[in-house]
């Protein structure tokens, strides 16, 4: 794992690394994911609709959720997430991301096999039509790392902020990381350690705060979905069932308020409900100014010099 190698290298050099960064990952949830074979439309009419459909089933007795989503080619994807009974027993298993065994997967599947499926039949019917080759079990973990780079090594995505899947932000945030990093490497004048360090520092400075906020938001959503009791049921009913779509859209746009685009391309022509944050200026933009003598109209429009990190 890159982040572990990076931190070990820093510690060997006598450099300080936050204890939270080197602490073992904490696993507290299991997740089984499957994709069915091609299904008959007569049994599952939802497959005739040419748009994706997403449903969540929340168990009453157990801290468990079932996620269902339609795929192209008349398939249904399903995902089961459940809390572990003894999550502390898994803290030291930093590299054990999966049980990968059919028996372990069956244990979680059996708990929801009898659940009614909103698309028709039961969840067990979907499981029976899922071949072993498209069935996986993983252990979920979440963590935000303080250290994102050192020397010529830089972290992106899950390597520096691991999100639970409930907010659907894992891939989004990794893509945002990559765009921010590319922008800060744009027009780098040399491959010197000094110039690379400037790029990495600017990347972390501009990207870190939003990534941390999203990490907290997904953790909160996970608690809302997994906690049990009258209070938790009331919160779920208010936040999920009673929230109007326009308000939910504002929340999702707010979670993705940091929407960078590649600085050497025209900005996207979209009208989000929540205005995105200003585009961070590439730290090496001054070298472009010196080379060109002036900024062209596109660069003037896309950047604000107030966002240049020092």
* Uncertain spans: 89-95, 293-301, 304-310
Spatial order of the strands in the main sheet? 2-3-4-1-5
Main sheet summary: 5 strands, antiparallel
CATH topology descriptor of the largest domain:
FAD/NAD(P)-binding domain
Alpha carbon gyration radius: 23 Å
Which structural class should the secondary elements be placed in? Answer: alpha+beta
Number of strands: 9
Q: SSE order in H/E notation? A: HHEEEEHHEEEEEHHHHHH
The first-to-last residue Cα distance is: 31 Å
Into which percentage range does the β-strand content fall? 5-15%
CATH class of the largest domain: Alpha Beta
Mean pLDDT: 80
SSE diagram, text form:
Layout lengths: L1 H11 L6 H4 L4 E9 L18 E5 L5 E8 L3 E9 L18 H9 L12 H6 L6 E7 L1 E2 L4 E2 L2 E2 L6 E2 L7 H16 L7 H34 L3 H12 L3 H11 L29 H8 L4 H6 L8
Descriptive terms for the model:
about 300 residues; alpha+beta; FAD/NAD(P)-binding domain; 2 domains; five-stranded antiparallel sheet; two-stranded antiparallel ribbon; 9 strands; about 40% helix; disordered C terminus
3D structure, described in words:
- The chain has about 300 residues and is an alpha+beta fold.
- The chain has two domains: about 30-140; about 145-305, FAD/NAD(P)-binding domain (3-Layer(bba) Sandwich).
- It contains ten helices and nine strands.
- It has helices at about 1-10, 20, 100-110, 125-130, 170-185, 195-225, 230-240, 245-255, 285-290, 295-300; strands at about 25-35, 55-60, 65-70, 75-85, 135-140, 145, 150, 155, 160.
- It has a five-stranded antiparallel sheet, with helices on one face. The chain has a two-stranded antiparallel sheet with strand order 6-9. Strands 7-8 form a two-stranded antiparallel ribbon.
- α5 (about 170-185) packs antiparallel against α6 (about 195-225).
- The longest helix is centred in the C-terminal third of the chain and has 34 residues, at about 195-225.
- The relative contact order is 0.11.
